């Protein structure tokens, strides 16, 4: 029992259950808990920049081979695009088979989608805007440049020694902040249930069930098969990062678990340089859960309005979302702007259909965020394994795989 009570995962789970109960039975009080969840996520975000910077700089300056840095980056981007295509395709296929949109619109709760649809004319993907609005990518670029410069500097050893000290301090600070994780999970879950209510799930239960089923299939069939190829178990990996998954479930934010995910992947055996390059890049380019949700939402709305889509049109939806889904990283509400721009580009499905998705979207954000973090963890392992940059610690829980 002492071990259970000292386990952070146990307290996060208790906090999530308490948040659900408060949200259901005292919604007015639960809505006020939003500040608790947001404050925790904002504190965690303060660590993201320093951790990415220090991990990448130390990784690159310690690697020595700059060609390897470029190869890892290119390999990661190719892997991300292939997996994103799989995610978009599986979302469309499952939605076509199960047909979650074959329901009556009359019983559905509507919300005002104008703040997303009004910007749809200007929502085309723009690389400059994408970079300027993406703090993670900016830190990534600066860190890569500093790491390369350090490789050629005569002060390299002294700089690496100093940065290593700072890295230990930052991770020590993160360790103490993570003790607040149950509060963050409680605040996030209480607000979600209090604000939107469990009753809003009933009319769109078929869509929610389809989304969660698809994410489940993607994680255990696609990502599971990839890990099995490298003689690793998806079940062991999920058990290994269960703390991060529960935290993401409570806060609806995959960013809340980014620092500790990087730390755990290093402990698992992935080299610091691979973790530093792949994880931050993946948070911008490898959004498997978001891709599944976006493609399923388009098909759901087409079915809701009885709009027939040909195979060519479905292929074009995948093509459009391959580019526009990149803009969904790290900006609240960006997924709806992307959906609006995609629907506008297709010219067949009413953009106003977003009004039906708004009420239930918050309950699907957990599935998106969890799938995103699992996908980025698997991507890091794949790149580390393929680059022979994966060394399982003796006696570690993955040693026997």
TrEMBL record:
It is a multi-pass membrane protein. PROSITE patterns: NA_DICARBOXYL_SYMP_2. It is found in: Cell membrane. GO terms for biological process: L-aspartate transmembrane transport. One of its GO terms (molecular function) is succinate transmembrane transporter activity. It holds the Pfam family SDF. GO terms for cellular component: plasma membrane. This is Aerobic C4-dicarboxylate transport protein. It comes from Pedobacter hartonius. Keywords: Cell membrane, Membrane, Symport, Transmembrane, Transmembrane helix, Transport. It comes from the Bacteria. The chain crosses the membrane at residues 7-26, 46-66, 78-98, 130-152, 173-191, 211-230, 292-311, 317-340.
